[in-house]
Protein: EF-hand domain-containing protein
Organism: Vombatus ursinus
Amino acid sequence: MASVFSAQACPSLKIEYAFRIYDINENGFIDEDDLKCIIQRLLNTTNVGDELLNNLTKHILGESDMDNDRMLSFSEFEHAMSKSPDFMK
């Protein structure tokens, strides 16, 4: 059985699983708190300054949050990830 994140896996399945992983508080959206936690985990530290963390979060939302509600719905996340060639590999 292939991993959901293998090159052979269906892109829509990859997106669905990634969304579930990134929706840390399981509210059906990737919100600011989720994004901050993701950033800290990706950087492997909790010592990210508040200003940098807020700027990165705002940048991500600015690029992907189409309805400006300060969180990413599944469709917004799907749209953003479909434009990311590295993610889709």
Summary: Residues 4 and 10 are 8 Å apart (CA to CA).
